[in-house]
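This part of the workshop introduces the protein records we will be handling. The question running through the whole workshop is how a given chain folds. To make this concrete, we reproduce a full record directly below:
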Amino acid sequence: MGHYFQNEKEIEAVVQGFGSCTTGADDFKHRNHLTVAVWYLRNSTPEQAFQKMCSGLLHFLDHHGVGRKKYDEQLTLSWIKLIQKTIEEMNPDLSLLQVANMVIDRLGDSRVVVDSSSSEFNP
């Protein structure tokens, strides 16, 4: 398993950089998306995590003057669902650090195919 993060402060820095838009648009890569999504999913319900991710992405794009055409709500939902499913398959006692590293390990290739056929969260 890869050790992308050494501690939770590094994870918090990614989330804070995204939320405050201090991270540059070109520096916010796929692994950063995964990290923020894991953080939201660990700290709220899947529905809340999805809403936070959507509003955060739109705010981030607007702040950096990137066209909203890069934003795909259905794709965001599919990724949130996939990350949630991946987390649910893990030991619930794992730390945020372990979960984030494992999610990136499993889903870090942005070419992972996500199922966007269902728009409902599976309870």
Summary: The two ends are 29 Å apart (CA to CA). The chain has one domain: 8-107.
